[in-house]
Queue: 2 jobs
Job 1
Amino acid sequence: MVHEHRFACPLPNGLHARPASLISELATSFGSDIRLINERTGSSANAKSVLEIVALDVKLGDPCRTTVAGDDANAAQSRLADFIEHEMPGCDEALPEIAPRSEVVLPRTLRRCSARWYPGTVVCPGIARGAVVVVGGVRLPTEIASDAEDAHAEERKLRGAIERVRSSLREKLKTAPSAVESAILRAHVAIAGDVGFAEKALASVAAGASAGRAIVEAAQYFAERMKSAESAYVRERAVDIEDIALQFLESIYGDCVRALDVVLAEAAIVVAENLSPRQLLAFDRRFLKGIVIEHAGVTSHAVILARSFDIPTLTGVADVRARLAAGTQAVVDANLGFVVAEVTPEVDRYHRRELAKGSRRRERLARHAHARASTLDGRALEVAANVSTAQELAPAFERGADAIGLFRTEMLFMDRPAAPSEDEQFEIYSAALRAARGRPVILRTFDIGGDKPVPYLNLPEERNPFLGLRGVRVYRSHQDVFDAQLRAIVRASAFGPVWIMLPMVSSLDEVRWVKSRLAEVRAELDRAKIAHDLALRIGVMIEVPSVAFQIDQFASEVDFFSIGTNDLAQYFLAVDREGESVAELYRTRHPSFLRFLVKIVEDAKRHGKWIGMCGEMTRSPRNLPLLIALGLDEISTAAPEIAALKASIARMSAAQCDELLRAATACRSADEVEALVASFRGRGETQALLDPECVAIEVDSSSKEEAIRDLVDTFFVAGRTDEPELVEDAIWAREAVYSTGLGHGFAIPHCKTDAISANSIGVARLARPIEWGSNDGEPVRCVILLAMRASDKDDAHMRVFSKLARKLMHDEFRERLLAATDCAALASGLAEELGLSADVVR
Amino acid sequence: MKIVAVTACPTGIAHTYMAAEQLEKTAKSLGHQIKVETQGAMGIENELSSAEIRDAEFAIFAVDIDVEQRERFAGKRIVQVAVQDAIKNPKAVFEKLRA
């Protein structure tokens, strides 16, 4: 007999995945046939299938009915009724949201518009607009293995795939780092094992379809039902089904079905859960404008590549694949760290203005890009580029790289079934050296292991891969692979200066062994009369702390050193640099780490060795004075940073940098160092208070927010601040006390902040008057911005500020500012009134 | 009339000096004798001596923050206004002296 139970759905969010999975778990524990019917729509589901239940689209209050038939129907019926009446109403808890990062704040000019936006972590700065292209896990192939073998063989493939994917998901679940990820993984395990899905696919196979065809059909069947559901939550789950189906397909057909064939045909923002380097390289970079990734560490390879290509990239944007609709326009602001899901007129204006500002800043920085960088007092510092492919060299030199400080060759070894041949590598290295046109290239031999596994090397699974077989430690057991690389490099050295750098060296023996291999390779080439450079240099990357205490001894074996700060800091501080729970402890501005660096560089210099630095620490402008003070010969960084770093070096005084480093190494905590570095001025000479570059007429600001931003941006473009947002915040903090509109069409916003590197006056005469909340209710036509450093006492500058303030009370002065016919006249008129001599104005 | 005044605003960069200028300008046009001390980012400037304070009939405080060394003005007739008021309508500030 058939038992029936009727109920109205008590759940405000409807019968979504969580209650559905509980019902299906319960139903699966009985042998009876259990069905759930949504009487509102008349559709019916196998209650053992989460997918079928969710596809019913049961909403709050929908009349529902369960039917139970079978041997244990009595027990099943009473257990089910009990669950529905007593337990189900309490299981409506939503999944925990990942809290948006509080430090990301929407710019004031965008706050009034209603566009949806999501914060993320900036990994490559810039701003971009394009059509959203969702990559990975959500594009089911339309052409898939249509020729089936016999039904039994296809069924075996299908069942095998389901089993493999389920067990791999369960494995991932064991190491899931967060509650949210665990919850999602559990949902995926349930989908992968869903009886409804399996039944549907098996039926197709029985009817003669291939396993691949059957998987695609079943996924489409469920995904379409979910996509048409009224609940947004259910619609978003369609992505999960397609993702699991893709995993089934990959499990049977290999990576060839992966969404690698995504073709970009217009300006695109690529949105993905994660990207492999191979995927990133496959995109047409003419159209790849921006990248938004849900999960990826700052040092993941896709991110490293994105940076080298200067593609604005955000990571850690929770659930973004479900939130950005494919094909719609989006704007990625990877300066402030957010993505906007709709391009309203305000967002469009914001994007255009930011783009224009970025190109003004780049243009200005370009003046410095191709000169050798040295401080005001003459300390030179080479600025080189980090690259991963030969194609990146030419653009890096265009951006002002003095050399290539790190060529990560392991990229050539990854995502492929066998190691690249000697000839293949020779072609790549020699192409790189030709592109370098005589500038040195530091080639780091392959650093594989740890977080960069490569299947053909058959490296063992390790409890802690970062402390296991990686870098130079792999070479002895894979001498054939290493020798091929060495021969390729030595042969390529005929095309330009090559420096070979060894990764993960922890003892002298490793260097000696490599040198013996090198000697042998050279001898072989000599015998074969193959040209190579006899001056080829060899060096070690300092990333294991043990090297630091034997620099004197290493110095007798090698030609140079380069400090790899990412790994050196993680080994030195014993902090996993990608571990979320210890992220707070990973601090390269730790006083002890700074002392360590001082010792390393001093020892290398004492023994007459060249020493550079590659790694994250070179990227932040805040670290620059510390690096200058260390006395490094070179820093090597992502190519897009080079021009700005060179421009900053040219403005600094090495003597003041030295003082900063001395003070920093005397600090007791990283926070103290932070405060010290933040207030560092580092200017060797006073920058002009009034720079004609910061004076403009006919400025196209449409609001107070835009006018303040425009003026701060002129400081940013002129290199007077690297942190324009902090300057803006300081101005708005003052503005909150009372409006700085002083009447007569003038406003005088101002602030004291160390985010400005030099006391500055900016003037914007507006094309159209704007509302400022002035004393006399009049709109503002002329805005004068005063920015003063908080930690300096520069009375001469302050006197100019107070003089300017007093003059603004006089009609004649204001009229003169309003009457000036061009920027130059405005700037020189102002300078004259303030008693600034021509050379102060510049 | 002999008047002393103190101006002081939150950041001490602009409004302190704008208010001082307005008070000086207006006093002159009204035929008063005034000395204005500014308490701004450069500290106390144009400092009032005890004799100057003693000889003045009134003290005007155009301030948004506390006046430093306020004890110097003990027993003085003080008119206190917001900095904004001194900038916007300085004449009204002087009218208060007569009230």
Job 2
Amino acid sequence: MNRDDELLASIVEGELTEDSPQARELFVRRPELRERAVELVAVRRELDRGGELERAVIADSRAETSEADRARVARALTARVASRRAPRWARIAVIAAGVVIMGVAGRYVVRRAEPPAQVNVLNGAVDGTVELLSSASTLAAGQALEWNARPLAPSERFKLQFRAFEAGGEPGKLLREIRCASATWTPTVADLAAWPEQVSLTVLRVEADNADRELARSPRFSLRVSR
Amino acid sequence: MSSSPNEGLDASTGYDADVELVRRATAREPQALDELIQRWACVPAMLRALQRRVGARLNADELAEVEQCILAALWTKLLEYEGRAALESWAFRFVQLELHKALDRRRRSRRVALVDLERLAEISVAVPQASAIEPATVRSCVDRLGSPTSEIVSLRHYDDLSFEEIARRRGEALSAVKARYYRGLERLRVLLEPHLRRQS
């Protein structure tokens, strides 16, 4: 501390009054120190006040402590000591489990927020497979062929592809392709006249206004043609 | 129970004996726990004395609730005790804080209750000392000074030691202790400036 700082400290401590010759000389020479001295004295007074309050309260409390106080403090502290914290490894395990659960939940939430996969609407996890509702998987003239699928959007259509049945599971020759806006189609005698006894059917969901862009595709169904 | 305000204060750097007591108590040594209970047995009386001095009047239920909050906080924060003050002084800060919170809660609820004219006479409102900064605010600013400045300011004002005693206990030159103290005071002036301005 330089000489001015020491003088300021003496003023703050009350060893020098503000109207002492040294203080007056300091404030004339460095007027900015006057305001600083006033503020430092205010800070010191607050510290003194806080210290006095603390000491007085502690002294009072020591004189006033009763057996009942002691018993309550003992009860409160021993209860807390008894409720031991879990061991460190257990706390780490709980935190790790929490992180994993949050991670899984977070992925689930993100997945739920994603738009539905466009190519799996009929055949994937969202809508399941297209289920034929017609009995005995038989195709007969005048009998409606029905299937169960999520309703179409206005811009969507179903596209039915009938192919000759191939034993090896290969797609056979395309017999007919039909577009319809509802989940049902009724063949006529003429439709079935030239078809073999067994055909395969694939139901597609297509975007009608976009060159039949395929949105989803069902598995291939095997149908017996009844004439 | 000692009646010395500086109980636990060592000739070295601070309250090493209290730090050691806390270490043993948190390790759940029965003897240390007993000693800690003896030291903090004054906490309920401390709460009563403080509320009397600040002119607050909590009822018995409110006092009991605040007391439990203080004891819970003391145990929970015990590992954070660094020996910058005696255990009683450290506990005093919790008493101050929890009482302040309780009075604040009560003031908020009273704003609504004041329209109840029948109960108006029962309501006692603590009148704060004119142009005074909340002692808890000053204390928390002292803590923010960091070591060793906060210890020196604490020893000077809260333990009421002279600069010579502080220098001797810390094994430092008197001039070094004074220089640190005034640097701390300057920083406190900055930290407390908004409050000091409100005062003036």
